[in-house]
Specification:
The complex is a heterodimer. By secondary structure, chain A is mostly helical. Chain A has helices at about 5-35, 45-50, 60-70, 75, 85-120, 120-135, 140-150, 155-180, 185-195, 200-235, 240-250, 255-285. In chain A, about 80% of the residues lie in helices and about 0% in strands. Classes of the chains: A mainly alpha, B alpha/beta. The interface of A and B includes residues 186, 193, 288 and 289 of A.
Chain lengths: ~290, ~260
Amino acid sequence: MNKLLPILTVVVAIMVVWYAAAVGMNKKWALDQAERAGISLSTGALISDTWSQDRPRLPAPHQVVAELWKSTGGMVIKGKPFSKRSLIFHGWITLSATLAGFVIGTSAGILLAVGIVHNKAMDMSVMPWAIASQTIPILAIAPMIIVVLNSIGVQGLIPKAIISAYLSFFPVVVGMVKGLRSPDHMQLDLLRTYNASGSETFWKLRLPSSMPYLFTSLKIGMAASLVGAIVGELPTGAIRGLGARMLTGSYYGQTIQIWSALFAAAILAATLVGIISLIERRMLKRMGAA
Amino acid sequence: MTERPVIEAKDLDLTFQTNDGPIHALKGVDLNVNKGDFVSFIGPSGCGKTTFLRVVAGLEHPTGGTITVNGMSPDEARQNRAYGYVFQAAGLYPWRTIGGNIKLPLEIMGYAKSEQDAKIAKVLELVDLAGFEKKFPWQLSGGMQQRASIARALAFDAEILLMDEPFGALDEIVRDHLNEQLLELWARTEKTIGFVTHSIPEAVYLSTKIVVMSPRPGRITDVIESPLPRERPLDIRDTPEFLEVAHRVREGLRAGHAYD
């Protein structure tokens, strides 16, 4: 209850602002329609109209929720969970690219971090490039990756996964370098007194020490992966995936569709990050955290 | 005793090159430590007492002179697991249980699984921590953690125990208790112990040999063979013999400072 109250307060505040904004932004259309029809609207009728238009500038929350349900649970009930109108279908397309990109990005990130920590030359040479890679806007690079890969016949999941990996490897590199370097001099000296080899030092000290850092990075990396996958769907006019849903929604003025795709992406991201948190908690518990 | 000393340092120098010029951490250090000795190194910060211990452990390398440990170079001695090292902080791995922490050196040194368990049980009993094997470090007090780290250093049966201000971060009551236990442990295991400390009473209470050092350059100003018996109850610290040794240590420390 103590936790619920503040959360509910914030949700209610957002709802109030949202509904009020919907009235403000959709009012013009409602008034124009009424004028054309030669009728005058009462305040009550005006408000209810702004909350139930087909193509509002800003759809009301219940419209988004209804659309979300219609395109997920509703499709399941109809027995067509993977129809092209289903967000489950589009969500799965995006999710598969996200997960593929996340796995590639995380593995690359960990390998680079291991190299950076163990090899002075890599430390000096790789890190600046990794940082530079993140200063390039992904929107500029995404179309190039897709076009180049398409020209050699690679399309579909892989180009999106690569864009996804491009965004997600960076937080993992930074976090893991810090994590692998977190053992202090004393702990490293202790292993030297045992005459431990480099690989023993890595497996028994550096890697376990880096776990809290890794999980923090994984959460950021996962969210970045999803953004990467969606961005990868935008520039090619893809017809499948949450990004494509947003794009077609904007072509045809289907604001409700855009918003529901947006929410589907947010829910997906929250779920993925939540899963990592859950694994983190289990893992750290096994590693002796209270 | 015709036996060769366990640690034999001759005219040992160690100079660190820093941006502010060379620092003479050790200069002309001569010292013999015999088997079964309890040797304390005492002196102000910068006198090289920790550096000397690290040289014995092969963690630092001297720039002049010679040192042998068990008749070998410190590096060879380390490879032969000649010593266990206890640091100022317990430094237990928080992700390993107490038993798991003590197992760490045993895993690295390749002991068989059954042997590992037997050794863990033995050293835990030795430091009076039997039954705490499955606890995590955060569940233990600071004194108990330090005892666990001593157990870790004892686990692989090294003949020499090197201790770098192991009780420096603990309060006096706990420290008294641990000093008593350490003496008991020393009597039971017959190890050779090198012990760095800041505390005069601690050095006098524990040692058979007290090495007084002074800084800039780090050197030995006095080596005191303690006349106290090996059997030492805590109240030996109120006897005239004890106070006399303590007085001599204090004089040695003061003499070292007179050069400043």
